[in-house]
Amino acid sequence: MNCSAARKAIYPSPDRCVLSVETGKALDHVRQCPDCRRYFESQAEWSRLLRAKAGAEPAPDQLRERIAGEIESHQRIEGPRRLGWIAAAALIVVCLPALWFARRIPSQLFFLALCEDHIKYLSADSQLRSSDRAEIESWFRDKTDFGVRVAALGTAEILGSRLCFLRGKKAALVFYRQQGRPVSLFQINRRDLSLAALDRWEVDGAAVWRASFKGYSVAAFEQRGVVYALISDLRESELLRLASAARAEAQGY
Ligand SMILES: [Zn+2]
């Protein structure tokens, strides 16, 4: 059994996989294969880091300052309304950070799920094998509630496409190969998804959101209600360049 088959058989981890006839052979492979052991260790570490990072993220400073200002001004209000205002403001101080986390964590976990999906389909396991952009776009037409655009990413080769369901959302996945490395381009309806879960970056004067872990990079942007996310283990600068090309093309549609 090779690495790709073993990883697939015991995805997402040796202790959380669905048992099948392949499981025993896959576990034997992983025990003897340092690459696969490192792969599952980094997966576990990634999940831990992300959850820790999401939990430690404070509410933005501006928001805190605004609330502190509101409390101060309402404290000056005389009469019986004053206590009510303070109680309401205090409630906001307690609840807003919780709302902030509630919005960020699902988005961070969603981008993590995209990365896991990229790793799961490193061999470009397509439902539609095609390098024809128009054919792929029309294949998605009755599958998603947004128009999928297959951008030409410079000299990257287009291999095919797949419809994924991740954390309750549909994601259109197009497989590319650049300099021999797999690149996934996901497109997702932006509803309930916050790019602020990633780090903001500027490429050619336009915002691109990025994250990376253990050699895999994410570069994402939004265009007309659709979030585009590129994932690869290419050099991050190279991936950001591809994201910038994809953005320029998406704007042209
Ligand atoms: Zn292996």
Any chance you could write out the topology, listing elements then pairs?
Blueprint: H1 3-9, H2 23-32, H3 34-56, H4 61-75, H5 81-120, E1 128-129, H6 133-140, E2 157-166, E3 169-178, E4 181-189, E5 199-203, E6 206-213, E7 216-223, E8 226-232, H7 236-252
Antiparallel strand pairs: 1-2, 2-3, 3-4, 4-8, 5-6, 6-7, 7-8
Helix pairs in contact: 1-2, 2-3, 3-5, 4-5
Bound molecules: zinc ion.
Zinc ion (ZN) is lined by residues 3, 6, 29, 33, 35-36.
Q: What is the level-2 CATH architecture name of the largest domain?
A: 3-Layer(aba) Sandwich
Coarse morphology: globular
Count of individual beta strands: 8
Summarize the main sheet: 8 strands, antiparallel
N-to-C SSE string, H for helix and E for strand: HHHHHEHEEEEEEEH
SS-based class: alpha+beta
| Beta fraction | 15-25%
N→C terminal distance: 44 Å
Low-confidence blocks of residues: none
Which strand order does the major sheet show? Answer: 1-2-3-4-8-7-6-5
Helix content: 40-55%
CATH class of the largest domain: Alpha Beta
Distinct ligands, ions and cofactors found in the model: zinc ion
In the residues, how many domains can be counted? 3
Rounded average pLDDT: 82
Question: Would you tell me which CATH topology of the largest domain applies?
Answer: Protein Transport Mog1p, Chain A
Total DSSP helices? 7
Question: What is the radius of gyration computed over CA atoms, rounded to a whole number of angstroms?
Answer: 22 Å
Key words describing this protein structure:
Protein Transport Mog1p, Chain A; alpha+beta; globular; binds zinc ion; 253 residues
